[in-house]
């Protein structure tokens, strides 16, 4: 049986250590200067929480491997002008679904599935932006290029469809 270290070639363990050191330099932990403070997080949360919705869905049995039922999930507004909410793929469902979004002010509006990604875990619902009359909210823009290893994040969602928690 071949020694795994022999497969590294003439560089051996020192070559592996060198490669690992280079990789760790690329994935540096955040420095003290760029850490968000509690005040920064509170300001951000105050801005984004109104764009987070509770999604309530009811679906029939779409296929023999899927179950019928009702459930709740979290989504967030990514396009306020066109009325588009991003959520997980399983929430949008592979078959017919009746759904509504409940905003922070308890406005409940119907939403309609427009896309369910076949590979990645996301889907979109559409709603009528004019139906949200008494809530001031902003969209949460998508920025996949900003995602990186070691980035500090916060999760905002609902607890069994009742209210938004951070």
From TrEMBL:
One Pfam short name: Trypsin_2
User: Which superkingdom does the taxonomy of this entry point to?
Assistant: Eukaryota
Q: Which SUPFAM superfamilies match?
A: Trypsin-like serine proteases
Q: Which InterPro entries match?
A: Peptidase_S1_PA, Peptidase_S1_PA_chymotrypsin
Q: What is this protein called in UniProt?
A: Protease Do-like 7
Q: Which PANTHER family match?
A: PDZ DOMAIN-CONTAINING PROTEIN C1685.05 (PTHR46366:SF1), PRO-APOPTOTIC SERINE PROTEASE NMA111 (PTHR46366)
Task: Give start-end ranges for the coiled-coil region(s).
Answer: none
Species per Swiss-Prot/TrEMBL record: Ilex paraguariensis
